[in-house]
Design goal:
mainly beta, 6-stranded mixed barrel, 2 helices, 10 strands
Length: 123
């Protein structure tokens, strides 16, 4: 099970280890985002730090209806004790965990500042 906490802004946060192609790793606090269909997003500073390899450019339609182009990188994340290859979207702002990575899991939130966040695989 992956555990985290709800912060003062009522964001559900979990800390994950993200791994680059040379084995470099950093711990990153991610916000759970049920409106994000991808796996992970990271700001460019982390992408540069890990020397992630560019995969392709794509576009997304934002909640306000606008379209934005962004780069996608190959990366890996430690997920329930296993290293999992993922596509990481470059996006400034808070790092995000999206529905692709949470698929097949039960997410439990105690939605108060300091509340518990858990992500557990479904049986």
């Amino acid at each position: 099970m992956i555990s985290g906490a709800v912060n003062a802004d009522i964001d559900a946060i979990v800390r994950l280890r993200v791994i680059g192609p040379r084995g470099d790793a950093i711990l990153v606090d991610f916000v759970l985002d049920t409106e994000f269909s991808g796996a992970l997003s990271l700001p460019s500073k982390y992408i540069r730090q890990l020397k992630l390899e560019w995969y392709h450019e794509t576009a997304a339609i934002l909640a306000d209806g606008s379209t934005v182009a962004f780069d996608v990188f190959d990366g890996a994340v430690e997920w329930h004790g296993t290293i999992v290859a993922v596509k990481i979207d470059a996006a400034e702002g808070d790092p995000m965990i999206g529905m692709e990575l949470m698929q097949g899991h039960r997410v439990t939130l105690d939605i108060i500042a300091g509340g518990r966040v858990t992500i557990a695989p479904l049986p």
